[in-house]
Amino acid sequence: MNESYENTPAGCTHDCSSCGASCPSRQGPESLQEPMNESSNVKNVIAVVSGKGGVGKSLVTALLASQMKRAGKTVGVLDADITGPSVPKLFGLEGQRVMGTDAGLLPLRSAGGVEVMSINLLLEDPTEPVVWRGPVLAGVVKQFWHEVVWGDVDYLFVDMPPGTGDVPLTVFQSLPIKGIVIVTSPQELVGMIVEKAVNMAKLMGVPVLGIVENMSYFRCPDCGKRHAIFGESHLEELAAKHGIPALARIPIDPAFARASDAGAIDTVEAEGMGALTEQLLARLS
Ligand code: ADP
Question: CB–CB of 272/248 below 8 Å?
Answer without folding.
Answer: yes
